[in-house]
Structures are given as C-alpha cells and as structure tokens.
Write a structure and sequence with these properties.
By secondary structure, the chain is mainly alpha-helical. It has eight helices and three strands, in the order H-H-H-H-E-H-H-H-E-E-H. Bound molecules: FE2/S2 (inorganic) cluster (FES). FE2/S2 (inorganic) cluster binds next to helix 5.
C-alpha cells in the first residue's frame, strides 16, 4: 500500500477531509473512511495511513474497519452501479431469477456490463414489500425487472434521475 509521502497531494487532500472529523467526533474512523470515499468515489491507496495518523491509531486498526465494510471500495466503481437485493424477501419474489436475467442482459451488451459492473449484491434495501428491489446509481427501483433496470441505467446515462 502506498504511503502518504508517495503522493503528497493525495495525503494533503485526505488530511484536509478527515482532520475536522478527527477533531470533533468520537471514534471517527468509519466517518473518515466514508468522507474519503464520498470525495474520491473510493478509498485510495495511502488514505488509510493518513487517517491512522490523523486519528492517532494504528494503520491496522483503520484497515480493520476499512476491510470490514464491503461498501468501502479500494478502487473506483462502475459509472452506473447496479445492485440487486439478494436478501430473503426479495429472493422469495424472484431476485435470483432477476440477477440471472440481468447477468445475461449484460453478457449480451458489453457496454452495459462495463457501465454497471453487472451486479454487486446487496442485502436488504428496506424495500421488501416492493421486491425484487434494486439500486441503480444509488436510486431505489422497486418491483425490478430487466427492462426497468435497463431503463433506469439509460436514464442515468442521459442525465435524467432514475
Ligand atoms: S429483502 Fe430485498 S429489500 Fe428487503
């Protein structure tokens, strides 16, 4: 993993983002990681070391939090992420079949696959009554099917809200 001194600009940017949190919040590591991801779209190499330094804890402690939460990413995600709920209530109304159909749709459309990352499962979106549920670029899609997902992705691509 890169260190802060490997990229002084990155280190300074991360430090500016997280220092106010470290100064005002108790147990700020997760907040710092979320802030960095919100800014960069992921947690770049070197950020863990800076957060550890600012929070006065070990890199291992920061890395432990970072690696625990799957929503914290080490690399930029797809342009229009699609996440289909894989939890029980949605499985009961066809989420597995939807995920399979979505993968097949992406196999036939490489640009769609590239733009969406195909699918990263998510476990309950709090929309169980309208399952199968999905997120397209962070926006909830209820009673999702492939046409609805394709339409939501197209809306995001064209600059409309999904
Ligand atoms: S189980 Fe899918 S939204 Fe709750």
């Amino acid at each position: 993993m890169a260190r802060e001194q490997d990229s002084p600009e990155l280190g300074a940017a991360v430090r500016a983002l997280v220092a106010p949190l470290a100064a005002t919040e108790a147990g700020p590591v997760l907040l710092c990681l979320q802030k960095v991801q919100e800014h960069f779209g992921y947690v770049p190499d070197g950020a863990v070391a800076v957060i550890a330094d600012v929070c006065n804890i070990t890199r291992a402690d920061v890395h432990g939090v970072f690696s625990y939460y799957s929503d914290l990413k080490q690399a930029p995600g797809p342009a229009v992420p699609v996440r289909i709920c894989a939890a029980e209530a949605c499985q009961a109304v066809g989420a597995r079949a939807l995920a399979k159909a979505w993968r097949e749709q992406c196999e036939g459309d490489p640009q769609l696959a590239q733009d969406t990352g195909v699918d990263e499962p998510v476990y309950c979106l709090g929309n169980c009554a309208l399952g199968p549920a999905a997120l397209v670029n962070g926006e909830l899609v209820g009673r999702a099917d492939v046409p609805a997902l394709v339409g939501a992705v197209a809306a995001v691509r064209s600059g409309e809200s999904s």
